Amino acid sequence: MKYGFFDDAKKEYVITTPTTPYPWINYLGSQEFFSLISNTAGGYSFYKDAKLRRITRFRYNNVPLDLGGGRYYYLYDNGDFWSPGWAPARKELDRYECRHGMGYTKISGKRNDIETEVTFFVPLNYNGEVHKVVVKNTGDKKKEVKLFSFIEWCLWNAQDDQTNFQRNFNTGEVEIKGSVIYHKTEYKERRDHYAFFSVNAPIEGFDSDRESFIGTYNGFENPQVVAAGKSNNSVADGWSPIASHCLAISLEPGETKEFVFILGYVENPLEEKWESKNVINKKKAEDMIAKFSDGAAVDKALDELAAYWDGLLSKYTIVSKDDKLNRMVNIWNQYQCMVTFNLSRSASYFESGIGRGMGFRDSNQDLLGFLHQIPDRARERIIDLASTQLEDGGAYHQYQPLTKRGNDEIGGNFNDDPLWLILAVVAYIKETGDYTILDVKTPFDNDESKATPLSDHIKRSFDHVINNVGPHGLPLIGRADWNDCLNLNCFSMEPGESFQTTTSKDGRVAESVMIAGMFVYIGKEYAKLMEKIGNQAEADRANKEVSKMKDIIMEHGFDGEWFLRAYDDFGKKVGSNENEEGKIFIESQGLCIMGGCGIEDGKAIKTLDAVEERLGTKYGLVLNNPAFTKYYVEYGEISTYPAGYKENAGIFCHNNAWIMCAEAVVGRGDKAFDYYTRIAPAYTEEYSEIHRMEPYVYSQMVAGKDAGRFGEAKNSWLTGTASWNFVAISQFILGIIPEYDGLMVNPAIPASWDGYQVTRLFRGDILKITIKNPNHVSAGVSKMTVDGKEISGNIVPVFGDGMEHEVEVILG
């Protein structure tokens, strides 16, 4: 069952009912000001950091669903009132539509001959959210209506709403000037920032106190002010500040009027704190408001936003016979990758924005999906991430985006983390050819006195693995590897003991075959990089360690039909046919084969056949099988989940991509693409009532075959699934791969395909690559011509002329 449709020409998903299976959201903003907005205008806004600079309030896990706050509008029409986005008033509409586009959302509703359309977006280089509200009388009689706006201010640190709201109830302050409501709570305390909500028209009334507007025992669906059709002109003094305008609108038959509302944030330099006692300096806000004084200015900004996204998305495009593939590659997957760049895992409808901040492992992997779009900002992100690294090569697992400081509460000791930094740096250099990043002096733990070149950071990342190995020579897992819930050391901890002490020196010996596979895959890339920069001694050392680890994997990490997952702290196998439950895990199968393990002797093919047989479902590959049905103290959190959910045999869409990549490595393009279509959002649209999450972006997890709700997704948008699936389809399957000396073409596609065309911007050159498959093979390049001339090999050289070049590739 569908709840909307793709409008590929406009790069929009069009939702045709407000009652989607779950709120289907979009993200606004691309620099510093960000917003989450649902298909009924729920959500919230923040500046840089969803915890420390939350602008508007939102209540998670709310009942009714998605009525926890938003940017709400109400139309009052002769005693009747309703909302153009259906919520929060939830009155039946004659027509409803939501269009989620690239960085904007347009919601429209019609009732009793009044049609209202609201376009929400964050303009480029602007710390505010703009709402263009259009009200039209579609009837044959004159209408006198009132438009009420509503947002609820947050008190800056969003965690205070959960922990210290007794204080918040005494600090709320506002200031009203004309049609602008200023929120200055904490301005007196911090004296450098405030927010505002404005409209470009005279107002009949306003409210800034929530209780006065809604009523003590009312909800967003029936605010007493709206029901009465008249504002109270309340001025907040403590309690819960809000901002609401009331506009009286007179409309002749067929007449349209439009208004511009702005929700903005201002941070003043220290010398501009106060105009006078307890009065904020409004100049910056007034300048921001003046910039969008009318609808024409808004339309221009929307055009600029569209051009911005067209530019980003044009850097990798495909033309194929599969519309679903085209829309995923050309639009939605790349768009989601950019959103994960901005937000990592911090703020979604499943992450509150309060706890996680930016993830080290997460953000390094996210970079793989967007660096071709914004290489300069990718470079900055790499330095930010490396700056949180610890001197031993480990890393803080998370850091706060506003302060860029590591999270001491979570700490480090996730032993896969360091390797992802190497992969990010290698990918950046291959994409850009910029080796100078290796020379950037980068601190450890944000201590500038400990700064060393980035090349030293990635060396320490490499050495962190070989300095922390267990009795089989496999890498120690530490607190956990990629699978945060596989806690093979946690059972042996003493009361009060910290995870941070879990190293090779304290006797804990749990080992990760997954990290070993990562080390072989990423270590080879590290060795190639060292060779490229002329450090042959380091390249030789690295290759020696990689070769050694590969031998160890094949001796101690292969279980006969597939790769083990780990050894626990007792030295017992995890992910073995010898186990009662959890006999096979997905992670090590993909990464070991991506690293080249088992390719020559057929063990890789044997492994991948076992993956399909034991992990395969119609909705994707489950993480492990059989699912755990009881608690295993030696495995930790993974066995606390019910069978089929999350890490306990759920379908983790993130590491499904590693199996796609592994299938491509062994040349089985049919299987690689088959797995791709099982989880790619555009292919799940037909069963949205089961999947429930947005049919235009990936979710982290889909309930597995052991779950009561098999096929249902959770945790959409902010997931490494986005970047890894883009890597899987764009590089491993379609086969357009950045390399140090050019762009490699090495597809692994379904044999039935006749071909396709990819246009790729690479180091300033525009490469139009036409793949032809006359012999209907899955892999292998038999001939390549560039600008009509045949070349040897399958790497398109870097021209550096900024021109367009025609590349033709014949598979065979």
TrEMBL record:
<dbReference type="GO" id="GO:0016757">
    <property type="term" value="F:glycosyltransferase activity"/>
</dbReference>
<dbReference type="InterPro" id="IPR011013">
    <property type="entry name" value="Gal_mutarotase_sf_dom"/>
</dbReference>
<dbReference type="Pfam" id="PF17167">
    <property type="entry name" value="Glyco_hydro_94"/>
</dbReference>
<dbReference type="GO" id="GO:0005975">
    <property type="term" value="P:carbohydrate metabolic process"/>
</dbReference>
<protein>
    <submittedName>
        <fullName>Glycosyl transferase</fullName>
    </submittedName>
</protein>
<dbReference type="InterPro" id="IPR037018">
    <property type="entry name" value="GH65_N"/>
</dbReference>
<dbReference type="Pfam" id="PF06165">
    <property type="entry name" value="GH94_b-supersand"/>
</dbReference>
<feature type="domain" description="Glycosyl hydrolase 94 catalytic">
    <location>
        <begin position="308"/>
        <end position="735"/>
    </location>
</feature>
<dbReference type="InterPro" id="IPR037825">
    <property type="entry name" value="GH94N_CBP"/>
</dbReference>
<dbReference type="InterPro" id="IPR008928">
    <property type="entry name" value="6-hairpin_glycosidase_sf"/>
</dbReference>
<dbReference type="InterPro" id="IPR052047">
    <property type="entry name" value="GH94_Enzymes"/>
</dbReference>
<dbReference type="InterPro" id="IPR010383">
    <property type="entry name" value="Glyco_hydrolase_94_b-supersand"/>
</dbReference>
<dbReference type="InterPro" id="IPR012341">
    <property type="entry name" value="6hp_glycosidase-like_sf"/>
</dbReference>
<keyword id="KW-0808">Transferase</keyword>
<feature type="domain" description="Glycosyl hydrolase 94 supersandwich">
    <location>
        <begin position="11"/>
        <end position="294"/>
    </location>
</feature>
<keyword id="KW-0328">Glycosyltransferase</keyword>
<dbReference type="InterPro" id="IPR033432">
    <property type="entry name" value="GH94_catalytic"/>
</dbReference>
<dbReference type="GO" id="GO:0030246">
    <property type="term" value="F:carbohydrate binding"/>
</dbReference>
